[in-house]
């Protein structure tokens, strides 16, 4: 089942396209990592999915409906925006009461347990919380809503390392126990490596690569060998990035078949290698032959 489907999806601000030609099928029951450079269009995609923005072109379907199209649709989707908005004059406890009132699937025990574990004072006004504590409150509201799809825009950016680890643990539990689907943007590749089994890389407003992490890792290889022109590689080895010194070439390729050329030393890639290769070289198939010293 697909939890987010985009077809020719685009969004422009004035005359600038923040997202364009976006084709996505994000499967249900997975944690999908959304990565890309600053300004790539990640928040724009998440806000389109949450129904906070209208597409300028194409279509987007979330949990089988049009984002933001009514109360039933809103109940299916949780969204924690990048600035983790909370009501500054309401206390932590009032936020939980509001959550319970507004959300049909609200898990009150989970919300209270989490707030207690984090150590947030229920009587404190949200405006007096630190940035990280505010993020924790917003994330608690998002998880306790028990949505079908949870959209998180850089959720852990302001959390300390321990809080980050615990939050990711909570997230994985929610996925395992309640089958919630998650799409989260992050610049922290190590975190994505821990929790994501699906990946979308956005660069320059376009989807550069998307797929199951396991499948992506299985089909990408790092080739190291005597310097050569990447145009001489077999057609089934799609060049993602290439670096050259005077004598040596290092090429990251996508291929389904084995690498038979004995001149290459063939290595596996990890998620960070893969993400950086796609982020560094947006012009797939047109790698630079510049010399790196
Ligand atoms: N409200 C807006 N008005 C005009 N331009 C905008 C607006 N919001 C975003 N943009 C532009 O759209 C592009 C994509 O922005 P977006 O916030 O989606 O990127 P992002 O990938 O989330 O970036 P970051 O990693 O820095 O959070 C950027 O060029 C940005 O300047």
Short description:
With 293 residues, the chain is α/β, with parallel strands linked by helices.
Structure description:
The protein is α/β, with parallel strands linked by helices and 293 residues long. It has helices at residues 42-50, 71-76, 92-102, 108-118, 131-144, 161-178, 189-195, 213-218, 271-280; strands spanning 2-13, 16-27, 31-35, 57-62, 77-80, 149-153, 181-185, 198-203, 206-212, 220-226, 238-244, 248-254, 265-268. It has two domains: 2-214, Rossmann fold (3-Layer(aba) Sandwich); 219-280. Helices cover 31% and strands 30% of the residues. Helix 4 runs antiparallel to helix 5. The longest helix has 18 residues, at 161-178. The structure holds adenosine-5'-triphosphate. Adenosine-5'-triphosphate (ATP) binds next to helix 1.
């Amino acid at each position: 089942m697909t939890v987010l489907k985009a077809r020719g999806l685009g969004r422009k601000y004035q005359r600038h396209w923040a997202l364009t030609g976006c084709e996505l099928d994000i499967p249900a029951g997975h944690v999908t990592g959304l990565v890309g450079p600053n300004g790539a269009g990640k928040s724009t995609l998440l806000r389109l999915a949450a129904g906070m923005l209208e597409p300028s072109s194409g279509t987007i379907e979330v949990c089988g409906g049009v984002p933001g199209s009514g109360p039933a649709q809103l109940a299916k989707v949780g969204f924690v925006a990048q600035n983790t908005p909370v009501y500054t004059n309401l206390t932590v406890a009032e936020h939980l009461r509001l959550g319970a009132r507004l959300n049909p699937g609200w898990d009150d025990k989970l919300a209270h347990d989490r707030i207690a574990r984090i150590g947030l004072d229920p009587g404190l006004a949200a405006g007096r919380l630190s940035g990280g504590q505010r993020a924790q409150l917003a994330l608690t509201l998002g998880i306790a809503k028990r949505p079908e799809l949870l959209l998180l825009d850089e959720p852990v950016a302001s959390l300390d390392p321990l809080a980050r680890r615990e939050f990711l643990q909570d997230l994985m539990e929610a996925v395992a126990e309640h089958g919630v689907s998650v799409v989260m943007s992050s610049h922290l590749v190590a975190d994505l490596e821990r929790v994501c089994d699906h990946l979308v890389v956005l660069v320059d407003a376009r989807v550069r690569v998307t797929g199951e992490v396991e499948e992506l890792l299985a089909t990408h290889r790092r080739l190291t060998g005597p310097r050569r022109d990447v145009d001489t590689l077999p057609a089934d080895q799609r060049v993602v990035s290439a670096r050259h010194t005077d004598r040596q070439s290092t090429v990251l390729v996508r291929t389904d078949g084995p690498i038979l050329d004995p001149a290459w030393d063939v290595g596996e890639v990890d998620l960070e290698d893969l993400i950086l290769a796609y982020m560094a070289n947006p012009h797939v198939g047109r790698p630079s032959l510049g010399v790196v010293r």
